[in-house]
């Protein structure tokens, strides 16, 4: 599905577009022409091609009608773009509706992300925009800016934009998007919570970061068998195959006596098992079920 947006500003004609012109009562002046690579079209009875690129249908109609004044008095005519040759904008990654959008007017990054239903809970803090071709009808400074930007491994110019800055309404984080651009909303980096939590598994780090206490809460809390005074966090260590081991006193963090630990991408949080008490053994003996009652998080 390729949704189309309309605008009173009008569609700007570009190379490859098909233009159809009709003059009321003067069929010999009717024409259908394709805009060439130089942005021009051939019109019957005119010695020189007419520049069509970056004009609206109205602008082009007024210009051609003025030229027709050489042959006709007050010509009544219509000029329409009957075939548009614009690559779609592609929106991928952590958005609710990955899609392609045909632009018929100016649009910015925030508007197109919103058109895709917004970002998902697994989105990270960055959006990458790839510019696959020089923009048509863009201001010279915009085209130059993207040409001088470092390219990725595929040789396609790209830029990173912050979702946080975008939400704050910062202009530099909300660029104009052009046909052919590819928008990729990056997935948040994961952390892994294992051991004595109710729902072990992978969690995504949100834009604002992920403290240890929040990660445990997102795992539905710890079990009664959890060793809360010694939670281990295994963290990647640059230049080493062995991870760094960080020990956090979760009980002290919950009590506010210690500062919470901010997790990093790909951390592994291991909630160990405490030694069983006599009461735990009696409960398991009586019920035949391991005592894994979750402890509420307040």
Described by the principal axes of the CA atoms, the overall outline is rod-shaped
Total helical elements: 7
Helix/strand-derived category reads alpha+beta
CATH class of the largest domain: Alpha Beta
Give a quick account of the main beta sheet: strands, pairing sense, barrel closure.
5 strands, mixed
Chain oligomer state: single chain
Side by side, the strands of the main sheet go: 7-6-12-9-10
Instruction: List the uncertain runs.
Output: 1-8
CATH topology category name of the largest domain:
Outer membrane lipoprotein wza fold like
What portion of residues belong to β-strands? 25-35%
- Rg result: 31 Å
In whole angstroms, how far apart are the ends? 46 Å
Q: How helical, in percent, are the residues?
A: 10-25%
SSE pattern, N- to C-terminal: EEEEHEEEEHEHEHEEEEHEEHEH
Number-wise, the strands total 17
What is the domain tally? 3
So, the CATH homologous superfamily of the largest domain? Outer membrane lipoprotein wza domain like
């Amino acid at each position: 599905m390729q949704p189309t947006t309309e605008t009173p500003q009008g569609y700007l004609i570009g190379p490859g577009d098909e233009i159809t012109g009709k003059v009321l009562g003067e069929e010999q002046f009717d024409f259908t022409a394709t805009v060439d690579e130089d942005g021009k079209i051939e019109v019957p009875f005119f010695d020189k091609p007419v520049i069509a690129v970056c004009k609206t249908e109205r602008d082009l109609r007024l210009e051609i009608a003025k030229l027709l004044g050489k042959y006709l008095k007050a010509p009544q005519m219509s000029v329409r773009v009957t075939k548009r040759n614009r690559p779609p904008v592609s929106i991928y990654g952590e958005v609710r509706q990955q899609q392609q959008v045909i632009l018929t007017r100016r649009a910015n990054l925030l508007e197109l992300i919103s058109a895709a239903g917004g970002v998902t809970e697994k989105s990270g803090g960055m959006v990458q925009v790839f510019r696959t071709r020089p923009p048509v009808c863009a201001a010279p400074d915009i085209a130059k800016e993207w040409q001088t930007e470092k390219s990725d491994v595929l040789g396609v110019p790209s830029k990173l934009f912050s979702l946080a800055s975008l939400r704050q309404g910062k202009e530099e984080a909300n660029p104009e998007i052009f046909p052919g651009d590819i928008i990729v909303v990056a997935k948040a980096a994961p952390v892994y919570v294992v051991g004595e939590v109710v729902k072990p598994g992978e969690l995504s780090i949100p834009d604002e970061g992920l403290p240890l206490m929040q990660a445990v809460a997102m795992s539905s809390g710890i079990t009664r068998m959890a060793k809360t005074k010694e939670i281990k966090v295994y963290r990647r260590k640059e230049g080493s195959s062995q991870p760094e081991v960080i020990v956090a006193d979760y009980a002290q963090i919950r009590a506010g006596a210690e500062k919470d630990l901010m997790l990093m991408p790909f951390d592994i949080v291991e909630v160990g098992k405490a030694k069983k008490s006599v009461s735990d053994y009696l409960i398991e003996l009586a019920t035949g079920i391991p005592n894994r009652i979750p402890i509420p998080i307040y």
